[in-house]
Amino acid sequence: MHILGVLAYDDSVLGEVTELQMALERKGYTVHLEQLGQATHPAGFGYFEEDSLILWLGRCYNDPARCQEIAAKYVEAGTDLIVAIKPQAVIAALETTSNAQTPIVFMKVSDPLLEGLPIDSEGVRERLTGVCDSWQNLSSERLSLLTQVVPAPSTVHIFTDTSKPICADEFQRLSSAAGQLGIELILHSVHDEKGAVHEITFLQAHSDHAILRTSDASFETYSVLMGATAREKSIPYAGVNVDEMERCGAILTLARRGSANQAAVLVERILKGEQPKDLPYLEPDGRSLGVNL
To answer: If 0-12 CB within 10 Å is exposed, 13-18 middle and 19+ buried, where does residue 130 land?
Structure first.
């Protein structure tokens, strides 16, 4: 029996946990999902087949300290590897497992370096691999898709925190694309929840404007508010995830798909004896486009 500790930094990634379970099942594993709390030690799992694979899910609720506590429990229990979902969970896992050499597979990370993962630190790459979503690469494509809206917007508003390197990189890509498309890009720089809510709620926009949600997962929290503001102003809103069409009224969405499939590939190779340092970072093998007709 193999045990995988899953660090879910917040509940927005629970869908990825389900997709990972399904991807591993497609590879022939008998997968069981156990919640940390219901079982505080593998001895409490009950009886499972010898060839079973246990996903031991720890929900961190946006709390780095809780993330470290859960990772420590995984190390103490001798889990075969840790799946860390979102950069904050990866950092917590790395700090907690530095002496244990537990392999770590990350998900929901766009660019390890730009998102602040210490990949150049001694000993990190030896035990770390994962799936790079490279979500900032799709932002310029979503901006281009907005030009197909009738009437096409002349100005697009974005809300992001350019003090974060990954967001600054996305903004640079968007600025370049906007120049090529002949679109004015208005940056609303926000650094905290209060500022974000104020900027979105009191947006000054005209009928030929639009709102585009940046891909940084931390701004997913404000997607409903962006959609509501767009409806109030009668302007289009371009989202990221397909559920934003119904939930937020997005006119279009574009996102990476297939991270779980690639993570399952890495998990299987590690369980079969390969080392993370010998495994390249992978990218999702698909994408999803949503158009609200």
So the answer is: buried
